[in-house]
């Protein structure tokens, strides 16, 4: 099948080799079955999407009731489900008077937030963070610092973005937060590299693809205060961290960040493509009123099937045990992995917030990132029946983001298998 894929897909999309990838045929709960009949434990939730489990009952119930309308005209003649979802999102947002823009992907939601913040602040400059990941469309790519993504398109990317270091207590200890905040203040004072004044700060409450990097206590509160002092709008990119993944509806609440705009996605659709940018009316009303031709929209905005799925997810998050289970299961996973793996010279730290967990791999005898080690581990783990992904700018963090449906027995299997893989890591 890999040969067939290579004959029809652009070579930049899927990495192909003798032992990579597997081709999925079926997925249920925390398990995936490939076309050859092999069964795996999915420790990625398919890029964080299937927090409720693959084929979750909440998703299937929501879609069952939406058979009569597959597509609509989201910004002209909206499906009723679009209105229902907007009302539900507004009711669970951090602000009493909220406005929402729906879209189909995380990158689109970030694009919406960046445009909104520029309109509301009147200042085009942006401050983002090293190690952050916000998407690969041109606007979101501008605030994604990793050169692997940016370098080929540098001439097209907006140059008014300053990048601050995200605190790294693993290597900087207790001084990490203060050093980062000092740099943030200096950058806000100085403005963007191209001279534009900064009006927007974009941050993940926990850096996900950056390596499950959790801010030190008090850091996000300090960041909020600095932004307020400089009259800068804070965009919380909760595409990965939100909708229960970190044990609360929004991870911002757990780490002390008080955002002005929030982007959500991934787990919001439980498998269907949908995202949202939310902000108080006083910020979102910086957009002009539509005269019949919206200046920021898309064909599938408010797609009724995706809206129905998101409504089912929100119902499950509000009435079920997803959030407390994510907190408890995440704590158990970090503890059991730490007890078993932190004795190994290749493991620098095991950390997590809810079900966003990272295993930092280092050069033995130091805290230097072990470049590419997580990618090599992902290959050996696949042979053990585990699907996982590498993270971090150096490919040195094993990222674990399982569904809340993963069982205690599966956790035990994961710990044993990862121990074997790490001891054999070249």
Which secondary structure elements does this structure contain, and how are they paired or packed?
Elements: H1 2-6, E1 24-28, E2 31-34, E3 39-42, H2 45-48, H3 57-64, H4 80-92, E4 98-103, H5 106-121, E5 125-129, H6 138-142, H7 147-150, E6 161-164, H8 169-172, H9 176-190, E7 198-203, H10 219-229, E8 233-238, H11 252-255, E9 261-264, E10 275-280, H12 281-284, H13 304-319, H14 322-341, E11 347-353, E12 356-361, H15 373-383, E13 386-387, E14 389-391, E15 397-400, H16 408-423
Parallel strand pairs: 3-13, 5-6, 5-7, 7-8, 8-9
Antiparallel strand pairs: 1-2, 2-3, 4-10, 9-10, 11-12, 12-15, 14-15
Helix pairs in contact: 3-13, 4-13, 9-10, 14-16
Describe this structure as you would to a colleague.
The chain is of the alpha/beta class. It has helices at residues 2-6, 45-48, 57-64, 80-92, 106-121, 138-142, 147-150, 169-172, 176-190, 219-229, 252-255, 281-284, 304-319, 322-341, 373-383, 408-423, and strands spanning 24-28, 31-34, 39-42, 98-103, 125-129, 161-164, 198-203, 233-238, 261-264, 275-280, 347-353, 356-361, 386-387, 389-391, 397-400. The strands form three sheets. A seven-stranded mixed β-sheet has the order 4-10-9-8-7-5-6, with helices on both faces. It has a four-stranded mixed β-sheet with strand order 1-2-3-13. A four-stranded antiparallel β-sheet has the order 11-12-15-14, covered by helices on one side. Strand 11 (347-353) and strand 12 (356-361) form a beta hairpin. The longest helix has 20 residues, at 322-341. It is globular, with a radius of gyration of 21 Å. The mean pLDDT is 96.
